[in-house]
Every structure is written in C-alpha cells, then in structure tokens.
Amino acid sequence: MLSRTLTSRPLRHHSVHIIIAGGSGFLGSLLIKKLCSHGAKITLLTRNPNNVDAQPNVKIVYWDGQTLQLPPHEKPIDAIINLCGLSIARWWTPSAKNSITQSRVQPSKALVKWCLSTNKPPKTFVQISGIDYYDLNTTACNENDNHGNTFLARLSKEWEETTMPLQQSDTRLVIPRLAPVLARTHPPLLPLLLSTRCCLGSIAGPGSQYFSWIHHDDFVNIIHKMVHTPEMTGIYNVCAPNPVPYATFMRTLASICHRPLWLSLPSWFMKSLLGEMASLILDSRKVFPTRLSKSRHQFKYPEIQQALTQIIQS
Fold first, then answer.
1. Domains of the chain, residue spans
2. Cα separation, 13 vs 38, whole angstroms
3. How do residues 230-259 score in pLDDT, each as one tens digit?
4. Which of the four CATH numbers 3.30.1360.70, 3.30.300.30, 3.40.50.720, 3.40.640.10 does domain 14-182+215-240+287-300 have?
5. Which of 75, 83, 81 is nearest to 14 (CA)?
6. Is the peptide bond before 56 cis (omega within 30 degrees of 0)?
7. Could you give the maximum distance between any two Cα atoms of the chain, in Å?
C-alpha cells in the first residue's frame, strides 16, 4: 500500500486551483459541480472542448491526452484529478481493449511527466482507478488484497503503475479505486432502471454474486475530501460499506419502482450474449472501503435501499 507522512496544511477550499483531465464526461461533471460550489477554480482538459458547456470558474482547454502544454495560469495548481479513459461499455474486441487501455495509460503518463518536470508541481494528484483491480475470486477484498488477472484487473494495475514515479516527488498521490457510481441518468443504473420500469427487470446469473456500488453524492464527497485532506494518501476503495448480492440489488430496485421481478437470465445466456463483457455482471465484487471506514468517514448513503430510493424518487 502507498503510504507517506505529510505535514502540509489542509487546502483552503475558497482558493484552490484544480486541473481535471478528461472531465467532460459523467464523473467530471459531478466533480466540477461539487468543487465549484466550494469556490474552486477549475481547468478542464478535454479532447472535445466544443462539447463542453461554458461555466463560471471553469477554463476549458483542448488536450490531446499525450503532450501537456498548459496556457499561462494566474494561480498555482493545487491538485490534478485524472479521469481520462474511454468507456468500457463497448464490445471488448482486441482493438477496443487496446483503445480502452491506451486512453488511460497515455494521458496518465503525460500528466505524471509534467508533474515531475514543472517548477511548480501540484500539491496533490488524484488518479482514478477501479475495484476490478482485485482478484474477484476471493470472498471479500480490501486495499491490501492482490490484483487479479482479468482484462479490467490488468488495466487497473497498468493504469496505477503509471503514477508510481510520483511517490518519489513532493506531490501527494491518492488512488481511489472506484466502484460503479449509481445515478439515474448513467450506466450501470440507467439500463437496469429502464428495463425494470418496463417490467423486464431480471436477475442475471446465479444472483448470489456480490455487487459493490457507490452513490454519486458519496463519490463527489470522497474525492473532494481527498483533494483537501493532506493526511489522505495512497489507495482507497471508494465504495459503499455494504455490498449486496445482485439478486438483492435487483429486488430492491423492483420494489422501489413497484414492478415485478420475474425474469432470470442464466450465466450461459449472458456469456453467449456479451462474451467476455459478461464478467461485468457475473463476477462477484464484494469490496469494502476499509481505509475510509478506519478513518471514520461518514457515508451519506451506506445502504442500497436508502441510496436507490433517493436516486429514483428525487
């Protein structure tokens, strides 16, 4: 586990300047809203600046994901949050796998190289990763457990390794391994919610496989805390403290939607339909936020019933 003693003072929320790389998507929009509400100034690096709506306190900068030539900025950079990466929700052909990998690894290498070469490096570097890092055959996982050998496990490991040179620098490195973020307008919840409302909700596979998750409010609260808390360093599982069996998740969703849950999709059917991608549904992910819990972090939505009720009925 990454570990380092830091004595710097907490960042003052009203004065921070944060670079968000790859922040034009779902997670980035959530973080920008949260950070700006606390007075942060954001520089958003994106390949598609024309697709991003202009916002107060947000400077939008084109970036190809490989070289980093930042325009002159008025404030020092307090933190970088790296969200770069193509969506994994596509057919996992060899070409797609390579694109998914390179869309993460190359921008991360470029950002780290810039941090190590600039005269005024950022105080904090937050490198998003995923809970699929782990060997999901184990009963339960915390931050100390070994990595697995699936495509997503190898991807997460390679992605994280690009940031290791920062351990020898003055920049604080934080790696949140992220569970699926639940929100009404975005996968993985969106397609499940739509099918359930149409009375086509189903239990895929045995249903006993565990599903780790995080409410979108808890996600932004934790990343915000990581940026502003110098004592937080190294790897953290960013997931709710109560993972549930997939069948429980779907029954809870159906109950809140007042719909029946009557379909069952066997594992062989999911594998024949989705191929290797079926692992996103069939693999058991029983991951715990051990380090956050030990630090007495208070989750806003620790239970799936509470989280889904708020998302669906709000």
1. 14-182+215-240+287-300
2. 6
3. 999 999 999 999 999 999 999 999 999 999
4. 3.40.50.720
5. 75
6. no
7. 61
